[in-house]
C-alpha cells in the first residue's frame, strides 16, 4: 500500500528561534559526536539542486527496525528523501548509509505511538494533542500528516 497523498498538505514551519538557534546548536553538537538521546544528522541529496542537505532527526528503533518520523509534516527533508530514497545518518565521525521506504498510513500507528513515547518531550507539541497513550483510532485519524520512513542500512 502506498502512502496517502494527503500527507503532502501538513507542514508546521519552525520558529525563527528554532531555525537560527536551537537547530544549528543541536546540529553542531551532533556533528561533534554529542547525540541528544540518539539524535542524528540526516544527509540527503536535494531533489532539485543535487546538493547534500543536512538536518537533525530523531531515528526510532522498533521491533528490530529503524524509522524516521517527520513530526512537522512534509518538510524539505521529507520531500528530498522521497525523491532520493537514499540518505546518511551521522553522529560525530560515524556515518550510516541507508535506503528509505515510506510507510503506508495504515501501518503508522504503532510507529507514531513509539515515537511519542520516546520523543514527546521534544516534539510532542507538533502532534496535535496526541500522546503515547492515545487510542489507535486517534493516531490513525492523523497519521497521514506525519510522514514515516523505514530505514535499511546499506552494506559497504
What's the short story on this structure?
The protein has 156 residues and is an alpha+beta fold. The chain is 30% helix and 26% strand.
Question: Could you characterize what this model shows?
Answer:
With 156 residues, this protein is α+β, with helices and mostly antiparallel strands. The N terminus is likely disordered. A 7-stranded antiparallel beta sheet has the order 2-1-5-6-7-4-3, with helices on both faces. It has 4 helices and 7 strands, in the order αββββαββααβ.
Distance between the amino and carboxyl termini? 30 Å
Low-confidence stretches: 1-8
What average pLDDT do the residues reach?
A: 88
What is CATH's topology name?
A: Pnp Oxidase, Chain A
Give the neighbour order of strands across the main sheet: 2-1-5-6-7-4-3
Number of helices: 4
CATH architecture level-2 label: Roll
Note the quaternary state here. Answer: single chain
Strand fraction equals: 25-35%
CATH class: Mainly Beta
Share of residues in helices? 25-40%
* Largest beta-sheet details: 7 strands, antiparallel
H/E series: HEEEEHEEHHE
- The geometry reads as globular
**CATH homolog superfamily:** Electron Transport, Fmn-binding Protein, Chain A
Task: Please state the CA-atom Rg, rounded to the nearest Å.
Answer: 15 Å
Tell me the number of structural domains. Answer: 1
Which secondary-structure class do the elements indicate?
A: alpha+beta
Tally the beta strands. Answer: 7
